[in-house]
Write a structure and sequence with these properties.
The structure holds two protein chains of two kinds.
Chain A (H helix, E strand, L loop, with lengths): L2 E12 L2 E12 L3 E5 L6 H8 L7 E6 L2 E2 L5 H10 E4 L11 H11 L5 H9 L15 H13 L5 E5 L7 H16 L3 E6 L2 H7 L2 E6 L2 E6 L1 H7 L4 E6 L2 E6 L2 H12 L3 E6 L4 H9 L5
Parallel strand pairs in A: 3-8, 3-9, 6-7, 7-8
Antiparallel strand pairs in A: 1-2, 1-4, 4-5, 9-10, 11-12, 11-13
Helix pairs in contact in A: 4-5, 5-6
Chain B lengths: L2 H18 L2 H16 L8 H4 L1 H24 L2 H6 L5 H26 L7 H25 L5 H23 L2 H8 L2 H13 L8 H25 L4
Helix pairs in contact in B: 1-6, 2-4, 2-6, 4-6, 4-7, 4-8, 6-7, 7-10, 7-11, 8-9, 10-11
The chains are: A alpha/beta, B mainly alpha.
Chain lengths: 284, 236
């Protein structure tokens, strides 16, 4: 495994307001890393620092092994050529066609114009190339924005709330495209307040709460860590909460051997439950 | 063609396509040309009035078209996307300014033709015109960066327009020598004074001071624009 993003004791203050408080994390190449937290928790600030739009107040953020705060112009140019960004804003030229929007960035990134067609196929919009952006739905615009972020085959894709305000169908399209990209080797840094999105996409997640990381691990390990000690069993006679001990095992054995067992569920919490447990806050 | 030139060329092409589909921008660019008909005169009038059509073309088309283009990029968050691409800030500014410059030169030429402005030595005129265009484009970029929306550019830019174009009239009303001296250094007044000298038989050497003052305005505007641009480019 090779670390692609390394953050140590990172802080960011805006006047008296502390947006980030001493956060540490490392992202390995090829990972989908979820940064989860409610609005105002510091997610977008982190993306802005890692993408080079903003300097940290203290601490270090190294991307591709280079300290973001100490990049010279050549390093900054190289950095921008290797990252892609997708935010919840459309950021497209409304009066131009999809093709014109993508062609501009093909030229800026010095990739052939034919790449526009390839990325549009990836997001399932190849047939809409000549459509003017202002006539597109929000979901389609978001897919075009994703296509634009992929034009130069970035090593890291920063996604800041990429599916907020999208309907389930468009969210699914975006998720499928992201999974395919990740399989092809792209590292993805995803900020979201949508726990289902994080569960479905992320290899590792961090809970950001009031500027600090409250918990960080794989979704599965977090669920196991915060699972309670009971198992819910539904039998032909009713639903029971059974302890994970010898007595519980005997009861489950009896229900199974007498054919009364209907369903059995371990009571693993969702990421949303864990977030509430860890931070005492809610996600919105 | 170098990569930098390719990027500038790509931004120019984008601006051209985008501007040609933006009726508000096209109308703003055309306003000075419409006004030029009002200043069409056969009578002998002062240099301030004779240069008014070209000064309007420079300030309205130059500054306001540029301001609207920049403000719209900010409003729609596209300026940030450009800044996060490999395009350097100077390439983005050059690409955006090229279309505004073409529109401004076209508006100046049309305004001169329509208003029957007396002919002037071309070299001298170009030496006056170029720093003026640079200054107004820089001021336009500045107004665009300071505005949150393209509509707000009018609100922020109007005081500047009034001072530059109407300054001499206000100065006369205030009857203050200090104010009148300050107004005399406005780029619009420098243009009027230089043209007056040239129309009265003066040569290029007689207007160097006016070109110099205009160049100082241009350099100061560009520097201010760069400072604000660095601070505001990611705002949105």
């Amino acid at each position: 495994m090779e670390p692609i993003i390394e953050v140590q004791a990172l802080t960011k203050a805006f006047g008296n307001k502390q947006a980030l408080r001493q956060i540490d994390f490392t992202i390995q190449r090829g990972e989908i890393y979820g940064f989860l937290g409610p609005s105002g928790s510091g997610k977008t600030t982190t993306v802005k620092i890692l993408s080079g739009q903003m300097l940290p107040t203290t601490g270090t953020a190294r991307v591709f092994g280079v300290d973001i705060a100490k990049m010279n112009e050549v390093e900054r140019h190289r950095h921008l050529s290797r990252i892609g960004i997708l935010t919840d804003n459309s950021t497209l030229y409304d009066r131009l066609s999809i093709q014109d929007n993508l062609e501009l960035f093909c030229k800026l990134y010095n990739v052939p114009s034919s790449r526009a067609k390839e990325v549009l196929e990836q997001v399932n919009l190849a047939n809409e190339r000549q459509t003017t952006v202002k006539t597109l739905s929000k979901g389609m615009k978001q897919r075009v924005t994703l296509a634009r972020a992929l034009l130069h085959n970035p090593d890291i894709l920063f996604l800041d709330e990429p599916t907020s305000a999208l309907d389930p169908t468009n969210t699914r399209h975006i998720h499928d495209a992201l999974k395919a990209l990740n399989r092809a080797g792209t590292t993805i840094f995803l900020t979201t307040h949508d726990m289902e999105e994080a569960e479905s996409l992320c290899h590792q997640v961090a809970f950001l709460h009031q500027g600090h990381i409250a918990a960080m691990d794989t979704p599965q390990r977090l669920r196991l860590k915060y699972a309670d000690s009971t198992i819910t069993v539904t039998t032909t006679e009713g639903t029971y909460s059974v302890q994970r001990d010898d007595e519980g095992a005997r009861r489950i054995y009896d229900w199974m051997t007498t054919g009364k067992m209907v369903a059995i569920h371990s009571n693993e919490p969702t990421l949303s439950d864990i977030f509430i447990k860890v931070t005492g806050g809610i996600l919105k | 063609m170098t990569l930098a030139m390719k990027r500038v060329s790509a931004i120019i092409q984008k601006e051209w396509k985008d501007s040609s589909k933006n009726p508000v921008l096209l109308l703003t660019a055309a306003i000075p040309v419409i006004f030029a008909f009002l200043f069409r005169s056969e009578q002998s009038v002062g240099a301030s009035v004779l240069t008014m059509p070209m000064n309007m073309a420079l300030s309205i088309t130059g500054a306001f078209v540029q301001a609207m283009m920049v403000a719209e990029e900010k409003e729609k968050h596209t300026l940030r996307v450009l800044m996060l691409s490999p395009a350097k800030p100077i390439e983005v500014l050059l690409g955006k300014s090229a279309i505004s410059a073409i529109m401004t030169v076209s508006a100046v030429i049309l305004s001169i033709l329509i208003a029957n402005t007396p002919s002037i030595n071309l070299v001298s005129f170009l030496l006056l015109l170029i720093p003026n265009i640079v200054m107004y484009l820089a001021l336009g970029t500045l107004i665009g960066l300071m505005s949150r929306t393209s509509m707000e550019t009018s609100f922020l830019g109007m005081p500047l327009l009034l001072i530059f174009l109407m300054g001499p009239m206000f100065g006369a009303l205030l009857n203050s020598e200090a104010v009148n001296v300050a107004i005399g250094y406005l780029p619009t007044e420098q243009m009027a004074a230089a043209c007056d000298i040239l129309w009265n038989g003066g040569s290029l050497t007689d207007i160097w001071s006016h070109i110099g003052v205009t160049c100082i305005w241009a350099v100061a505007s560009v520097l201010l624009c760069i400072i604000v641009y660095r601070a505001k480019r990611y705002d949105a």
